[in-house]
Structure prediction request, 790 residues.
Amino acid sequence: MKIICSQSDLKNNLAFVSRAVPARPEPLVLGNILLVADETSQKITMTAFDGSLGIRASFQGEVVDGGTVALPAKLFNDIVSRLPEMEITLDCGDGREEDTNLVATLSAASSKLQINGMDGSEFPELPTVASDNVVELPINILLEGLKGCLFAASTELAKQVLTGVHLSSSQDASADDAFLEFAATDSHRLSVVRAFFNDSEVEEDTQSDIAENLTDLAVTIPARALRELEKMVSEGQSTFKMRYDNSQIVFEAGERVLNTLRLTGAYPPYERLIPATFSRQITCDRKRLISSLELVSVLAQKNNIVKFSLNSTDEELTLSVDTPDVGSAKQSLPAEITGEDIDIAFNIKYLMDGIKAISSAEIKMQLNEWNQPVIFTPLSGLQVTYLVMPVQIRN
Amino acid sequence: MKIICSQSDLKNNLAFVSRAVPARPEPLVLGNILLVADETSQKITMTAFDGSLGIRASFQGEVVDGGTVALPAKLFNDIVSRLPEMEITLDCGDGREEDTNLVATLSAASSKLQINGMDGSEFPELPTVASDNVVELPINILLEGLKGCLFAASTELAKQVLTGVHLSSSQDASADDAFLEFAATDSHRLSVVRAFFNDSEVEEDTQSDIAENLTDLAVTIPARALRELEKMVSEGQSTFKMRYDNSQIVFEAGERVLNTLRLTGAYPPYERLIPATFSRQITCDRKRLISSLELVSVLAQKNNIVKFSLNSTDEELTLSVDTPDVGSAKQSLPAEITGEDIDIAFNIKYLMDGIKAISSAEIKMQLNEWNQPVIFTPLSGLQVTYLVMPVQIRN
Prediction:
């Protein structure tokens, strides 16, 4: 195998696929990047795989001799990122001679580096999708949806289906207000985002085509894969293609491909958790609420609880925190309040995550009693519903 | 005690003194910042101390009631840095009522925070200097000197005097070419910097005054204290005052003071280590040498050794690294070479530290044999001599 390509193409694609390389590769060959050079198409393809997530990227280069080799990911990255921005030649025996290791030689100007590789055939094939379920998803809609809810997915592997984001489509909406719905919850809080197709960057005709194709969509995708998907945007692409069957999902954008296991098992019927009516409502400046929470959280120490006190007469929301033997904090901010005054307490971290994921200038908080779910929504922009359960106030 | 001051004054001075707060305070009171408010001078002074290093800073504020209190450093910092940029009132009982804790109340606009403090009298006094040895040191000279050698001091406490930088003055040089000499070594490498007074930013007359006062200077200062000293530069100050006796050193710049233990014991006679003559000399581009070392170091793995091969015929310096079972790297760069060709090897880290601390565009390397000390010097600018011992090449 012998290829000649630009340092920047090699570096960028390598950095992208390397995100799928596991920290503790098992089997060891997964600590490598698979490199395949195809003489006919003059294409170089790189693949990394951790057993569940696989990432693949291709780019054009000069393929003098086709072939395949697996190279240690970290070393390969470290070398390529330190080489000057110029043409790089990668040359590699075919490993046919016995008793010799497969050695890859990278050369550029006055540099020459050799690293021991492995036979490319030892690298496992990425799983394929057995059905021809293919949908197209506008990239900007997908990214917005993820931004608003990815953080709420559980990080505990034992929580299985909750470690993913549930993606579904509007069922009987007309093409005009068709949307994708994203939901994530770790059982303490829930974030639901509706991203409308007419906010997407694809053309109107294509929008309705896409929407029609999507009527039955309901898949749960691992959050880990979606975090990588956020970085996968390819130049000149406005949509991802998503192929899926009962066990695998494959995203494609241009020359970049991301494979992931699909999370199976029923996703909880989260719509039922969101109260239909509320007896109290508060509207306030979102950034001010964030900085107030940041200030009082300093005194929250371990229990991490903040109390919200509503004062409709003074149109004031007061946050307070009290940690015996350490100190206490109180911060008030102006707010429009309807409903009776009440004290209600939250875990600060859960509150912060959700309020930060909403991007409008003002935020609306709706609640019933101190022990019932509370929802936060933006006053404009992307339609996010963030639900948190309050906590009991110690007295 | 009651003071009113600006958030930024409080924040900046607090951040500065907090660098002396130990990670594991022993006794516990050292985890606090001592705050002293003086009604007469309307000055607020903050002090932190870790038992060996002490930092103190004062600033003007409105002192309504004088007094003193010790407040938990981390909490105090966290609060002040999150308060908005405006006037802050700090109010604190005098602790006279028994059975009550000393509580400090910080208030600003709609925020009110209370933290438990300790009686200021429990905070130890910073050590004082018993003699009237006082010298003045131009700040920019001191900073340049430190930049060129601080990194070479040992980080192993057991190496005692080597954990410091040795500061001495030119003995019999005329005022015109008077200098300060900075030396640091961890026994593997040595960096010596000569900083000349006529490069300083103080006026010429003052320069000679300062130089005359300095003729007998020879002190070893802990590197840890010097790292903080680098951050101590005060507005409108061009010199530090340094007071010292046999056990303590105190640096003063404007309203900022830094106290440190002095390292005792004879500093090794390092001048003798530097060879007087060399049989070989190489000059090359410094940045190119750094990037070449960075590239080949990727393949150096654990042993961390690079071989320099001199080729005077081709005017080329070749760096090479070889790690069995992993790979190898070779990188050549143009160099002016005098003397016979030779192979010589170094620890990459030691080499890098020194070459990075030198700031000229080109660097000169002088050596005799493969097992004798090598020195690196800049072709212009600050006078740095960096000495490293080569290592044996495995064959």
